[in-house]
Write a structure and sequence with these properties.
Layout: E1 10-11, E2 14-18, H1 22-32, H2 42-72, H3 90-97, H4 99-140, H5 146-150, H6 152-236, H7 268-301, E3 306-310, E4 318-324, E5 330-337, E6 342-346
Antiparallel strand pairs: 1-2, 3-6, 4-5
Length: about 350
Amino acid sequence: MHGWNIYADVNAGDERTRVTPHVEGFTNSIQSAFPSWPHPLLLPVILLNEHISRGEALRDQIIETLQDISGTLGVTASGRLINMEITDFKRIRELMIHPQERITLTARINTTITNAINCLDVLRWNARCRERIAACFQEIESSLTENAKNGHKELLDYFAFMDVQATELSDFVESLKLRLELQLSVLNNLVAQVDNDVNYDMARLSVKIAQATGLDSTAMKTLAIVTAVFLPPTFIAPSQTLFSMSMFDWSSSESTDSDSPQVVASTFWIYWAVSVPLTLLILVAFRLWWRRQKDRYAEMYGMDNIRVESTDTDASYMRPHYHKYQNGLVGPHKYTVRPHRYTIRQNSD
């Protein structure tokens, strides 16, 4: 009860919201309590009642914000006996699609939870004040003047009503705080679900990339094998290479003389005797080298040498898992202990 609203009837920074100034509230309360004017605790009770009214105003603001947050998260049909079916998923779809919407909503929920906590702190202070005033009522009851005794019972009854009102207000704000914490948990689960969907899409993309890479690798290995098959004969056959062979004499086919040399050279068998074993030797060497490389990479990156460690600091945290229903809703599946993060390490031995 200080600052802008001592005399002003608008909130600072929001001229659309009208409030009752503190001075006006004090004046109305004092005028309505005419029989209790002589009572020494009249002013403390009025001040305390005005303090409670400000808590009610903050409670109303929290309720309004909470309703909007609940509508964004899809909680639009709770606590009803009829019309419990949820049909509007537009806002929650936008929340799932746009990251900025999730960031903004997270900030709103955190701010509203902070307001609820501040309101609870103020109401706890108010409760301590009520306890002290109640003790003062008992202490001064025997020493009141005749004029003060006339309004004592009325003021005491009003104080008792105010005490019940403040207690109910504190309990209600506590329930609002719990609801806000629940909404924050739902939002975190939605964010986790979005991350899981993204990871799933990335995994599918990785599989496609792996398939394409495998096809490319197969094509390259096929090309390498074909090259290995034809390379030795190609190296041996031309006249500029190892044996300088002339395997065919095409001019001899045009001669009619029976004594003319044959088209195929008599040493043609040497070509096959050298090229075929050399080709087989290269293929066998390639196969042995390839198996050795596969065994080496299997030893380095095999699952026996990979361990998965949890880096979650609170392993006992019960984290809910959510799944999609047929109509697009997100609902709880079961509770299991699951770490937040994993670390993949390779064994050194």
